[in-house]
Amino acid sequence: MGKPSKGSETGSKSDKKFEKKLQFYTKVKDTLTSLSVQKEIGKKKKSRSRQKKLKAYDLSTLSEFLPEVSASQKSALPAPDLKMNCKRRQELVLSEGERLNKVLDHPAFQADPMGSIFQHLQSEQPPVEEKPKKKTNINGSKKRKNRKKGKAESMDF
């Protein structure tokens, strides 16, 4: 970016080019600084809005009205699933392998594998709520909503 020095003839032309370059670089530098200042202002506004939203969802006042949970009930709740890493994966493989061996060795499974799996699934799944059945006609078809018969009668000639 230094000033080129070729000769006396091109001295004025090269000076003009050099000045133009300097002006361009100063403009670029000014715009970068103004943009960075605008970014900082925008970040401050975002953090303020997040804090306001957090205040809106503050549920600490509800804790006064909720019943207390004892320590024994807290321990009965399952621990949240943590991220899977190599050690946890290995532990999971070992524990599930032991469980599979227990299932394979169980006499009920050896006698009737499909039946015991079905029975296990029936006991583990929550009961299904039956929906009330729709009324049916004498011939077994579902009742239809009454359609307007006025149009059909008026079309007869």
Describe what you observe in this structure.
The chain is mainly α. 60% of the residues lie in helices and 0% in strands. It contains six helices and no strands. It has helices at residues 11-56, 71-76, 86-105, 107-111, 113-124, 150-154. The chain is elongated and about 105 Å long. The protein starts with 10 loop residues before the first helix and ends with a helix. The mean pLDDT is 76. Keywords: Nucleus. One of its GO terms (cellular component) is nucleolus. InterPro entries: Slx9-like.
Spatial shape? elongated
Order of helices and strands: HHHHHH
> How many individual β-strands?
0
> In percent, how much strand structure appears in the residues?
under 5%
Distance between the ends: 98 Å
SS class: mainly alpha
Mean pLDDT: 76
**Gyration radius, in Å:** 40 Å
Helix content: 55-70%
Largest sheet: number of strands, sense, barrel closure = none
The residue ranges in which pLDDT falls below 50 over 5 or more consecutive positions are none
Q: What is the number of helices?
A: 6
List the helices and strands and how they pair.
Blueprint: H1 11-56, H2 71-76, H3 86-105, H4 107-111, H5 113-124, H6 150-154
Protein name: Ribosome biogenesis protein slx9-like
Biased composition (Basic residues): 133-150
Family: Belongs to the SLX9 family.
Characterize this entry briefly.
The protein is an all-alpha fold and 157 residues long.
Q: What descriptors fit this protein?
A:
Slx9-like; Ribosome biogenesis protein slx9-like; elongated; 6 helices; mainly alpha; 157 residues; single chain
